[in-house]
Amino acid sequence: MTRIFTTERELRFGDCDISGTAYFPSYLDILNGVNEEFWAHMGFPWHHIIWKERWGTPTVHLSCDFSKPSFFGETLRFDVGVIRVGGSSVTVRHKISCGSEERWKSTQVLAASDLDKHTSIKWPEAMRQALMDRLTTPEELGF
Asked: Could you read off the pLDDT of 47-98 as tens digits, one per residue?
């Protein structure tokens, strides 16, 4: 099993400003979709954990560094790695590139949260194990 999850997204017209340059708020929406796909890949689709199990993974911290612009029609590659698993949080790093060129990167902390009580919870054991199985180093992700 590979520890780094990879997926691609094409920048669409609505992701960009009038000059065709990717608009950073759209990047965050795309990143959320990548996270949703990552969770499903591990066997925990959000529609199941949210509606049936009643827990979710809100972002509690997010930092982004943008190194080069991206443009309408380009395909971005998202590499996602888990770098820390806590009792109720996980730190993931995202490296986003186009071809061989890095475009931006992000570090994000998500927390396990009870959706009815609005409090943090410990990871369900199966989820914690899935995250631990994907632990990687920042160097493996190219950070």
From this structure: 999 999 999 999 999 999 999 999 999 999 999 999 999 999 999 999 999 9
CATH of 4-141, one of 3.90.650.10, 3.40.220.10, 3.40.980.20, 3.10.129.10: 3.10.129.10
Name, in order, each residue with C-beta under 8 angstroms of 49's C-beta and a sequence gap of 6 or more: 39, 55, 56, 57
Gap between the terminal Cα atoms of the chain? 21
Please state the pTM of the whole predicted model: 0.93
Q: Residue 118: count other Cβ atoms within 10 Å of its Cβ.
A: 8
| Residue 135: its H or E element | none
Q: What gap in Å lies between CA 16 and CA 39, rounded to an integer?
A: 26
